[in-house]
Amino acid sequence: MGRSGGQTAQDVAGAVCDILMEHPHDAPMALLYLTTPADDEERQESLQVAAATHLEEMREAGVPDVLPFPENAQDLHLLHRVSPFPAPVWLEPITQVAALPLLHSDGATVLGLLVVGLNPRKKFDGPYRMFLQVLRRQVASALMSAHAFALERAHVEQARQQAELLARQNAQLEARARALQGFSDLTHDLNVNTPPQALAQRALEGLMTRLPEGYAAYI
What we know:
By secondary structure, this protein is an alpha+beta fold.
């Protein structure tokens, strides 16, 4: 499986199913569910289908688009018997699927679920089981890379927003400093002999030079 740098989890799901479409003898059908975070406290996390090799046919067969989030990820290792599903390259239907958990390297965080229809003409033996385990690890690794990329992108965006905020705050501080310096300059040479009109004119001129760009003055 190719590198997933710069890809989203949805991109990874689509790429996985595109690859499996080219290997129907190993995986005659496949669905990839991704974890969907809860919208609020009342709605729990769920698994939503992100890609499939024969999605429309599976929907017609009653395959759900959304699955409840499992309380125990280990339950996803079980093989399940399903209603006969037409195989794309044989007359014999698919009657068994492997539900493979896609776990983070921490061994607990569920990234998704890969459901693979088993070849009805193949014995589910050690090599077939090993193939599914290798596939599961590769898909999980690609999803971890996608999540890491998304997290890095979020950090970059947060840093950009913080830099913009600091720039605005610095501009405001500089404007205040200029204003204080202006009034300091104004009062530096004051004396009782200075006419009030001259003081007002100097104050106005100092203020005008320190107005932020884009401000208009009405006199």
